Structure formats: structure tokens, C-alpha cells
């Protein structure tokens, strides 16, 4: 088992799963499209962001996309985990926890003092993130204005 920065070839494999990751991570609240999926993964290819992969026996079991973002509330740059995904058949084995911890380590080594992530309400991953020390900072509410 190893966690390391993804190679170009591995990033291409990850991108092939972008539609299903988008659908699952947004709890079916976003209609997946190639354009949205490309936008989602393009940030991880811009040079300042990158993927970490969890590899076992030469196979990717999961990944995390990490980078930086500007926090308008504190006027500071913070680390961000923009994507954390483990294949369904590999879940409940501690892979997400290891990826999240390693992501935080990478970001801390880059000098960030905070790490943020966004997770949709109802996503079971919230429990994991809270166990790892993440806490709710804000809550986005919405109301539909049509029938």
C-alpha cells in the first residue's frame, strides 16, 4: 500500500470516473454532464492542485484532489480537499481516512494552517470528516421558488 502523487497516466484514469464521482458526491442534486465533470477535474490539473492516489498491488483504490483556495472570511489562503473518492468495493477499509490524513499532511507541509472541504448534506462521509477533526463552519440553505 502506498499513497503518493498521481502520475499523468493515473490522472487520466481518475478523470474517466468524473461523471460517477460528481453524481455520487453531490447526492444526485447536480445533473452530471461531461462539462461539469471536466470543470471539476480541471482544477486538479492546473499545477497548483494535484491528486494523491492510494495504490495497492499496482491498482488505484481511491484518490484525493488537494490544492489551495482563498478564504474570503479570513482573507487568507487555505488548503482544500476538492475531491476524496474510494471505489465502492474498497470502502470501509480505512482508505478514505488514510487519504484524508495524508492530504492534510501534504497541505500542512506546504505551510497551510487550515484545510477545508465541502460535503453535501446527507453524505455519509460527514461522519468520517468529523472523526478526523473537521467541523461545520457555515451552512448553505436554499429554497425553491417554483412549484
Automatic annotation (TrEMBL):
Keywords: Acyltransferase, Transferase. SUPFAM superfamilies: Acyl-CoA N-acyltransferases (Nat). Gene3D superfamilies: 3.40.630.30. PROSITE patterns: GNAT. This is GNAT family N-acetyltransferase. Residues 1-147 form the N-acetyltransferase domain. The keyword Acyltransferase applies. InterPro entries: Acyl_CoA_acyltransferase, GNAT_dom, YpeA/RimI_acetyltransf. It comes from Tigheibacillus halophilus. The keyword RNA-binding does not apply.
